[in-house]
Amino acid sequence: EAQVTQNPRYLITVTGKKLTVTCSQNMNHEYMSWYRQDPGLGLRQIYYSMNVEVTDKGDVPEGYKVSRKEKRNFPLILESPSPNQTSLYFCASTAGGSGNPYEQYFGPGTRLTVT
Amino acid sequence: DQQVKQNSPSLSVQEGRISILNCDYTNSMFDYFLWYKKYPAEGPTFLISISSIKDKNEDGRFTVFLNKSAKHLSLHIVPSQPGDSAVYFCAASAYGAQKLVFGQGTRLTINP
Questions:
Q1: Which of A110, B14, B39, B64 is paired with A3 by a 20 to 30 Å CA distance?
Q2: Which regions of A67-115 does DSSP assign to beta strands (E)?
Q3: B92 touches chain A (CB under 8 A)
Q4: Scanning every residue of chain A, which has its alpha carbon at the shortest distance from the alpha carbon of B105?
């Protein structure tokens, strides 16, 4: 089954404690992105990656890091989480080349609470 | 600056009637528009899209209309069914960009 998986699905942590949210896709997609969803703001892009070792900032990159060492994986790293990073996070992937470059497949989401 | 706006946070429609969800955008560089549907505890799923070279795209009960001069698009669902109750996000992209800009979402409730 084609899918994007994220782990963990729920996470409660404290300010300053480094954490990583993993994302993996099994569709051999070139493009992957991270979004956060906040009430009244919709989904905002944090970082995206066009291929292995190629990443770029989205609209709200501050406080986040990403890496793309393998095509299937795109982890989101919060080196020193703060309460304003409490949010619902989605990973997404998109086929490049002959696929529809705009249709993104989303993971189920990770609800993060930083106290 | 919100480049894609969905001004109605919620919409309630009777089952069997038409649901119309609206979306406005400000960036004239956007040339591809999408609608996503989101159920609670799930990620958004792609619903329908339209290129700026068209003004209408239809897929079963779902039709998207694009009015470029007004920078406005709408999603029509006919007839509306209870399973259509979800949050709908409008999104836009500029040519060649992998970046999607999303609206705030509209919660659609279909009443029996």
A1: B64
A2: 76-78, 87-94, 105-106, 110-114
A3: no
A4: A42
Using a CB–CB cutoff of 8 Å, tell me whether B46 touches chain A: yes
Structure tokens at A51: 């291929």
Chain B interface includes A107 (CB < 8 A): yes
Q: What angle do CA A30, A89, A21 make, to 5 degrees?
A: 75
Closest by CA to A84, choosing from A110, A115, A109, A59, is A115
For residue B56, report the phi and psi dihedrals to the nearest 5 degrees.
-155, 140
Residue B90 tokens read as 């409008």
Token output for A72 = 């299937």
Coil, strand or helix: which one is A24?
strand
In chain A, the DSSP E strands lie at: 4-7, 10-13, 19-25, 31-38, 42-51, 54-57, 65-66, 76-78, 87-94, 105-106, 110-114
Q: Digits of tens for pLDDT over chain B (112 positions)?
A: 789 999 999 999 999 999 999 999 999 999 899 999 999 989 999 999 999 999 999 999 999 999 999 999 999 999 999 999 999 999 998 866 667 899 999 999 999 9
CB of A85 closer than 8 Å to CB of A114: yes
Q: Which residues of B touch A45 (CB under 8 A)?
A: 99-101
CB atoms within 10 A of CB A1: 3
- Return the residue in A23, A44, A90, A104 with the most chain B beta carbons within 10 A, the one to mutate for interface testing: A104
Q: What is the DSSP letter of B87?
A: E
